[in-house]
Design the sequence.
């Protein structure tokens, strides 16, 4: 009997500690850093989910602190009598944590599974999720964005260019990969080439990787980083429109182009 | 022996079947691609003919509405033709010349409609119309064999691999080049823009390789004593620069520094993920200003700040009076973990814009935007318009008051109140 009682007491104690740990995690789930426009990551996912819980945020929970999150946060600050600056400091964070709930595991599970979901507080969560990826940036559509791009580029552009860069130059130094990405972007600005990234990449004969199918290899993180740097303005090719491998190039025309510099195996020219 | 012959026969049979399958599959693919190319060629040829008619028709009208309709049509057709041409396996030179010429016609039509510059359009298009007719005829001759119903895919392959002078497009290519130069010479603004892009106007004193390394070490002191490989740009490069590649421990990177004046064009360093130092966004901002001070960029301010997986990408612009000069920007890449400078791009900043005085006329945003649109932020900026002219503009962040609070960046010329740009902000 004594044994049963001590087991019961232990069980209740363990349960109590566990639930208090859980509550502590709930109360201090944010990492404590300042969040503002331009921030991204798990803290922003939590911010968006909590703002949605209390009905201030109707956009996609994607971990990117853009204007949608900014206006929602300002509205929250205004309603709760806080300084209205669209920045989540300690005071705003504490107020938001007190006013809302965040089901971290559920939200991250939806994101990982690519489900469409919302996180409103007035509806059971199980009624707020739909399997499968949505097709546009509408309400509740999900999976977290991995990057913040300059406004003129989309994640589709990034993916397509990363495939091209990986297929064309995966054995090249990082500088050479950024340069290949920059050549694609330079063509986008040139009147001599098509108007979209996709048309430039798939223009017949434009890239060897398209012809030999290597464009369909899965790009690594380095290729994606190289594209991201090029999209943010870096151009190690110094405004080149073409590049070629001097060992394999046979076209007389490409050799006639004024050359700029050589990076790894590629000569860049315009 | 019998068994060996039996096995060999089976192997030969299997190989035969396999090669038959592969051949069939290849044939199927060739037919599909052949059909796609023929379709693109047909579409390009028809659009070219419609465009030529449309250009000639535009010469008929003086009435503004009728002419604007035709100009809009020309702009749309030129875009359509460019898209069809981009899907054809033409050799690079022919494709580029086509793109440029057709694009110039479309651009000219758009500008004529936008600016109401109809007289200049009529003046120029007389010649362009007749040149287009010539090109259309030559194109018809050059492409006639591709419509033969023989399914011979090798013809298309030859087009792609031939040198221009060897193939049937030689005349089209040479005429396109000539017409581009005579029909659409560069305007003063375009030519200025190209010069700036090519940094040809730099007339600073030349520096040596060693001095170029000193410039780099001033910006990133922690690569001091790295192993350097310095080469000079090719003789045909539009501006000379030193290409410095460095290795120090796990840091590998490059920098391009102009020979004239030792200006940093760009620098990038890659290194493995570093130990977290718990750096806040404010620290990153402070570090950014410190990096820029070290490099002597005293007149720039942060205009955009984007956090990515391992780095911050930060955009800055030169400040002139109360306005930000966007074309004189510098971009920085800073490690999230350690706050180390991993990249800097100052190519645009090197050759600063010449700023001309321009009147500023106030705008009543309540009249400019529809009710329900709120101007949340406003600042003055210098940016380039369609004609590559630097203009002083209002830049506003406008919020449309709906459920999603959709936000737009709108740039409006401060003198003419012309809308230069509208962007949807995430």
Sequence:
């Amino acid at each position: 009997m004594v044994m049963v009682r001590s087991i019961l007491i232990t069980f209740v104690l363990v349960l109590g500690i566990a639930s208090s740990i859980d509550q502590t995690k709930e109360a201090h789930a944010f990492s404590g850093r300042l969040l503002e426009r331009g921030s991204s990551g798990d803290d922003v996912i939590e911010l968006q989910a909590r703002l949605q819980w209390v009905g201030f945020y109707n956009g996609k929970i994607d971990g990117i602190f853009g204007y949608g999150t900014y206006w929602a946060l300002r509205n929250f600050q205004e309603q709760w009598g806080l300084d209205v600056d669209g920045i989540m400091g300690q005071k705003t964070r504490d107020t938001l944590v007190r006013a809302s709930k965040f089901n971290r595991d559920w939200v991250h599970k939806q994101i990982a599974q690519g489900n469409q979901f919302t996180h409103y507080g007035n509806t059971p969560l199980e009624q707020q999720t739909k399997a499968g990826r949505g097709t546009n940036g509408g309400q509740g559509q999900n999976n977290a964005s991995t990057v913040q791009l300059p406004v003129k580029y989309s994640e589709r552009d990034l993916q397509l260019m990363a495939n091209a860069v990986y297929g064309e130059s995966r054995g090249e130094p990082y500088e050479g990969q950024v340069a290949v990405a920059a050549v694609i972007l330079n063509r986008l600005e040139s009147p001599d080439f098509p108007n979209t990234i996709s048309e430039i990449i798939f223009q017949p004969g434009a890239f060897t990787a398209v012809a030999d199918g290597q464009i369909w290899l899965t790009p690594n993180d380095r290729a994606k980083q190289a594209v991201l740097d090029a999209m943010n303005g870096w151009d190690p090719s110094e405004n080149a429109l073409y590049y070629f491998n001097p060992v394999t190039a046979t076209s007389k025309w490409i050799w006639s182009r004024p050359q700029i510099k050589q990076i790894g195996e590629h000569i860049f020219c315009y | 022996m019998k068994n060996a012959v039996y096995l060999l026969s089976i192997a030969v049979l299997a190989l035969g079947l396999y090669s038959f399958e592969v051949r069939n599959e290849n044939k199927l693919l060739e037919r599909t691609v052949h059909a796609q190319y023929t379709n693109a060629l047909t579409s390009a040829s028809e659009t070219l003919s419609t465009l030529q008619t449309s250009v000639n028709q535009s010469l008929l009208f003086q009435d503004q509405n009728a002419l604007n309709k035709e100009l809009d049509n020309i702009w749309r057709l030129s875009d359509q033709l460019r898209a069809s041409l981009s899907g054809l396996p033409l050799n690079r030179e022919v494709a580029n010349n086509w793109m440029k010429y057709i694009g110039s016609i479309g651009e000219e039509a758009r500008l004529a409609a936008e600016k109401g510059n109809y007289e200049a359009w009529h003046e120029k298009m007389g010649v362009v119309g007749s040149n287009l007719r010539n090109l259309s005829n030559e194109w018809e001759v050059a492409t006639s064999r591709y419509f033969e119903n023989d399914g011979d895919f090798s013809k298309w392959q030859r087009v792609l691999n031939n040198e221009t002078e060897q193939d049937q497009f030689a005349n089209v290519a040479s005429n396109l080049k000539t017409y581009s130069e005579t029909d659409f010479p560069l305007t003063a603004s375009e030519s200025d823009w190209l010069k700036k892009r090519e940094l040809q106007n730099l007339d600073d004193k030349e520096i040596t390789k060693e001095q170029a390394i000193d410039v780099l070490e001033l910006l990133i002191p922690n690569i001091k004593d790295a192993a350097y490989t310095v080469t000079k740009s090719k003789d045909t490069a539009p501006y000379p620069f030193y290409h410095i590649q460095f290795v120090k421990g796990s840091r590998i990177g490059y920098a391009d520094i102009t020979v004239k004046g030792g200006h940093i064009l760009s620098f990038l360093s890659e290194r493995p993920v570093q130990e977290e130092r718990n750096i806040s966004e404010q620290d990153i901002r402070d570090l950014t200003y410190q990096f820029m001070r070290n490099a002597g960029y005293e007149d720039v301010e942060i205009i955009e700040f984007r956090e990515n997986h391992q780095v911050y990408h930060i955009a800055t612009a030169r400040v002139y009076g109360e306005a930000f000069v966007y074309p004189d920007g510098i971009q920085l890449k800073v490690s999230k973990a350690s706050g180390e400078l991993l990249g800097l791009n100052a190519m645009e900043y090197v050759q600063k814009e010449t700023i001309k005085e321009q009147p500023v006329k106030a705008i009543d945003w309540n009249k400019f935007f529809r009710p329900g649109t709120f101007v949340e932020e406003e600042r003055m900026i210098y940016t380039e318009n369609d004609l590559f002219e630097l203009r002083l503009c209002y830049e506003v962040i406008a919020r449309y008051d709906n459920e999603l609070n959709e936000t737009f960046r709108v740039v409006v010329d401060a003198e003419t109140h012309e809308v230069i740009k509208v962007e949807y902000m995430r």
In short: Chain A is about 45% helix and 5% strand.
